[in-house]
Amino acid sequence: QLTASLEILEVKGQRVAVAPATVEEYVDSASVVAHHIVEDLGHRVAFAIVRMGDRTHVVGRSRIAEVDVGAVLTRLGGGGHPQAASAALKDVTPEEAAKALTEALEAELRPPVTAADIMSAPVRTVTPEQTMREAAEIMGRWGHGGLPVVEKGRIAGLVTRKDVDKAVRHRLDHAPVSGFMARDIVTVTPDMGLADLERLLAREGIGRVPVLEGRRVAGIVTRKDLLRAEHGEHYLDRAVPTARAESSRRFLQSVDSLLPADVRDALRAIGALAETRGLRAHVVGGFVRDMLLGRRNLDVDVVVEGDGVAFAEEAAARLGGRVKVHRRFGTAVLVLSKTLHVDITSARSEYYTRPGALPTVERSSLRQDLFRRDFTINAMAVELDPATFGQVTDPFGGLRDLERGVVRVLHSLSFVEDPTRVLRCARFAERYGFDVEPTTLQLAREAIEMRMLDEVSGARLREEMLDILDEDGCAKALERLDTLGAMALLVPEGCAPAAAVKTVGATERALKRLAPLMGRVPRRRTTLAVAVTHGATRAAAERWLRSLRFGREYGEGVLVAAERGGAALRSLSDRRGMRDSRLRAALHAMPAETLVYLWAVGGKPARERIERYLRVVAPVKAAVTGDDLLALGYRPSAAFAGILAQALADRLDGRAVGRTAELANLKRIAERTLGRPS
């Protein structure tokens, strides 16, 4: 009955096979028939509607991503997953069930996917005059298997990796592309549907097809694009659709519970504005990662598939903000308030002219934008379009790695292209308690052994190291780097990396202990930078500061520790008694960062004296000032400073305490130093 009654519905451009039947008693074959209609008869979506007794059973199957039969049959009181689902309707006829099914399809179905939806754009091309060597370089740089050949804005042919290999084999890589390109090429229009695309590639036996708007190349579709469109990014992993639905729920829950109202409103406003302009906007990177992990993050990055700078300028005008533009990189910062800044960029790809160099950036697709990122957990995006707000895009397995607690690079040359990712890898692994995936760990080790970090500028190394020092428990990340052999590049010459790591951990604990005792709490970064230089001579510390381009803010604490830290520790560690005046003389001129470092590396006597200095000695102020010397009849002179210092020392050591006693003592010191006033 089912196969005989099969009819095809057109719903929002999608062809759906529906087969009704009625039987007197229960049979367990409706799901088998629905599967047969999809797999054997070639229909992409099918529903079997079978009346059995007082119930009508609806069974659905789908093999395309645009039709989620689980969502469709949930509207009929049933459920399942995107590829297979069912519903049982009591006291409903097959005709009534078919009508309800049609209404559910109208509500749930999306328009069919076309070449314009799945193509990669913009397309990298070559001209007929360029050499095969140049074509090979472009293919190698971007991992392409073929390139359209464009002449005067129109497509003239297609050159593939096989053509390049042939040219190299015959030592003709200097020859022009025109001598090797295929001229009789298959092309499609942007509105060609997925089914027609699939049949075309299969019939012609080709792996890619250019998409033309008139004669202009608008994009290119590959077999991988088709597979991703039909089955999702991870078309070999059956668990992914369920995982992605769960991740979207988790993202939305974090947005509602962790973000201030102005951030939530800004995200939805940006998505709505993009939708009205025919653009797609996505939040990407670390923001997505932390929302999925349930961690607060206000560092919002938005990628627009279009002109990001122009969009940011319009968003500023519409949302009442202002914009800072960096045209060289195609980026902008949308400033909506003092606390809410949104980075907006065009979807872009990048390549590196040499290891450690800053990247060269080009406009690209969202997938390529995500591919340029460091790790899979940072290579996810979430849609801001009002109709699909919260939908996760995960082309490289970031969701799976988040669930498994793994840091993984996207490709084997990741650390070669940007060696600073080695430092980031250690930082993320420790921040989230993740493991580094074994191949990623080996690639990091090889990059260090190849001395790739030597190619990185000192300023970039400094910023990556400071980002590590900002993390709680940062010594563990530095210990990872030391295990890999990278710490030797981050400490001054002659310093032991393992000792520096241990000192950073001790100094971090010291800062937490001493902060409540200090009038001016030193910055965490500047304090831990002193610890990194543990054991350095002044000359080595100066070279280190210059090499990593540290400013004066960092230099003072580092240089004082290198030059005077050893002597100060020996004095503080002396078990003989130490008057408070001597303690002040030893520590008063020390930068706060150096004091914390000395406490961290000192023994018990040194620590006790540093704490006494902070608790008891440092707060003491003398009851007399220079005005009192003027009142005694003395003229201002350089000797005033020494006289007042001795008065404070006598106050600290208990020889003169209180205004009357301190004034009399000041008079004696002044007469001894300057004589009686005239």
Question: What is the topology?
Answer:
Elements: E1 7-11, E2 14-23, H1 30-39, E3 45-52, E4 55-62, H2 69-74, E5 79-81, E6 84-90, H3 94-108, H4 115-118, H5 132-142, E7 146-151, E8 154-160, H6 161-169, H7 194-204, E9 208-213, E10 216-222, H8 223-231, H9 240-258, H10 261-276, E11 281-284, H11 286-293, E12 300-304, H12 308-319, E13 322-326, E14 331-335, E15 341-346, E16 348-351, E17 360-363, H13 366-371, E18 381-383, E19 392-393, H14 398-404, E20 406-407, H15 414-417, H16 421-432, E21 435-436, H17 438-449, H18 458-469, H19 474-484, H20 497-514, H21 524-532, H22 538-547, H23 552-573, H24 580-587, H25 592-601, H26 604-617, H27 626-631, H28 639-652, H29 659-674
Parallel strand pairs: 2-3, 12-15, 20-21
Antiparallel strand pairs: 1-2, 3-4, 4-6, 5-6, 7-8, 9-10, 11-12, 11-18, 13-14, 14-15, 16-17, 18-19
Helix pairs in contact: 5-6, 7-8, 9-11, 16-18, 16-19, 19-20, 20-21, 20-25, 21-23, 21-25, 22-23, 23-25, 23-26, 24-26, 24-28, 25-26, 28-29
The SS-based structural class is alpha+beta
What would CATH call the class of the largest domain?
A: Alpha Beta
Low-confidence stretches: 234-242
Q: What is the number of E strands? A: 21
| Radius of gyration from CA coordinates | 35 Å
Q: Into how many domains do the coordinates divide?
A: 5
CATH topology name of the largest domain, in short, is Beta Polymerase, domain 2
General form: elongated
CATH architecture of the largest domain: 2-Layer Sandwich
Strand line-up in the sheet with most strands: 13-14-15-12-11-18-19
Total helices: the number is 29
Mean pLDDT: 87
Can you identify the CATH superfamily of the largest domain? Beta Polymerase, domain 2
